[in-house]
Amino acid sequence: MDTFMKSLPSELTQKVTVKINEVIEEETSRKLGELNVITEVSETPDGNFRIQFSPLSPCSPLAVNMGRGIRDAGMSVDGVKHVTVECSGHMQDELVNKLVNREKSPT
Predict the structure, then answer these.
(1) pTM of the model
(2) Residue range 32-43: average pLDDT?
(3) Which end of the chain is more exposed for a tag (fewer CB within 10 A), N or C?
(4) Residue 78 belongs to what domain range?
(5) Helix 63-75 to helix 93-101 angle, to the nearest 10 degrees?
């Protein structure tokens, strides 16, 4: 039973998952939760999250926008301190990840 309890997502992870599943994908105007593009949502004990997604196409021109939408949705949940988004399955995964996770410049 102890192993089972550890495998359940925390309340915060559940809130983040619900929030990112509501993000609208620009090309199809459908929610990410309907498209099954979120492949993993993991939390560290200190409120940091790692969210993995796979774009609809390996050459999607909107992968960066999708990743930023995921990041922003995750960050909008109370209790989340930082979100790192990882794209997998795009021909430019490394570039997408770099652009999505680049820190915003202070204004």
Answers:
(1) 0.88
(2) 95
(3) C
(4) 2-101
(5) 40
